[in-house]
Structures are given as C-alpha cells and as structure tokens.
Amino acid sequence: MRKPSVRGAAVSVLFFLSLAFFEAVAMSQATKKGDEEWKAPARAARKKNPMPADAKSIARGEKVYVKECLACHGNTGKGDGPKAKEIEKHPGNLADPKMWNQTDGTLFWKTTEGRKPMPTYTKLLSDEERWDVVNYMRTLAPKPKKILKSKSGNK
User: Fold this and answer.
1) CA 25/CA 146 separation, integer angstroms
2) Distance of CA 79 to CAs 22, 43, 46, 72, 151, Å?
3) Which residues lie closer than 8 Å to 52 by C-beta, 6 or more apart?
4) Going residue by residue through the chain (155 aa), what tens digit of pLDDT does each one get?
5) Using CA atoms, how far apart are residues 107 and 99, in angstroms rounded to an integer?
6) Taking the CA atoms of the chain, what radius of gyration do you get in angstroms?
7) What are φ and ψ of residue 144, in 5° steps?
8) Model's pTM, two decimal places?
C-alpha cells in the first residue's frame, strides 16, 4: 500500500481551491450587476405625490411616457419596447404586481435617479412631469378580473 505524498495532497487541495474559485466567478457572472433589488432610500419612499392622479395628470404623464419611456418599457409597460432587445439589462416590468407595492415616492425616486441603462431624468424632466409619469404608470397595473355570479349565487 502506498502512502499519500505531501505533493499529491497539495495538488488535490490546489485543485479543489481552483474549482471553488471558478464556481464563485461563474455564480457572480450569473447575477449581472443591476439585477439586485433596487430600493429607494426611506426618505424618498415616504415622499407624497403632490399631483392628483386625475385625467389631466395621467394624460400629461402618458405623453411623457410615450416620448421617454415607451422605447424600452413598451406600450403596456412590460419591458418589451422596441429598444428592449438592444440593452443588456431587461427594462423593468411596470405592469408587475410587485411594482404596485411600491410607494409613489419610490417610483418618483427611481424615475428621477435612473439606473443603468436607464438614464437619470433629473434634468430632462421637471418634477411635475415625473409625478405625472408616476400617475400614468399606475394605470399600467393589470385590472382585476370580474367574478361573475350565476343566478343561483354560485361563482
């Protein structure tokens, strides 16, 4: 029976360390930068929308959305606009139910600050325009389906 050599043990350890290193690199590449959760600072999230979500604000927001957001986010906000395929990170799905758990302040902050590849809109849009866009984005939420009852009262 052969005794294990120090050299053989060192090679085995080196092999497993290399394997662990390459696995860690592969895992880090699997999660692209920007795929992590995007949270607004607490102060921004608490900010109240000063624009009433009325028909005028929503119409103004839609005009801005069509000009500035539609190319990536698409007509219905699902991130399927004509430019979406050209960019590395998938545009956010504005129709996703997770979106609607976010405050208006959070949506305003994200629209204001942007995150690559989305630009910042601090200088491109006024505060009022960004609040109007928030009001318009809220209209992209899926509408709840009606539950019809039969005459007998059963669903």
Assistant:
1) 48
2) 33, 27, 26, 6, 41
3) none
4) 566 677 766 666 565 555 455 454 444 443 444 456 889 999 999 999 999 999 999 999 999 999 999 999 999 999 999 999 998 888 889 998 888 889 999 999 999 999 988 999 999 999 999 999 999 999 998 776 666 565 555 55
5) 9
6) 24
7) -65, 145
8) 0.69
CA 82 and chain centroid, separation: 17
Residue 98 per-residue DSSP state: G
Amino acid at 146: K
**How many other C-beta atoms can be found within 10 angstroms of the C-beta atom of residue 122?**
13
| 121 phi and psi angles, rounded to 5 deg | -110, 20
Torsion of CA 123, 67, 108, 136, to 10 degrees: 150
Number of Cβ within 10 Å of residue 7's Cβ equals: 8
For residue 61, give every residue at least 6 positions away whose Cβ sits within 8 Å of its Cβ, in sequence order, or none: 129, 131, 132, 133, 134, 135, 136, 137
**DSSP state, residue 17:** H
- Whose tokens are 């590395």? That residue is 88
> According to the model, what pLDDT value does residue 103 have?
95
User: Which residues face 118 on adjacent strands?
Assistant: 115
**Residues 79, 83, 89, CA angle at the centre, nearest 5°?**
60
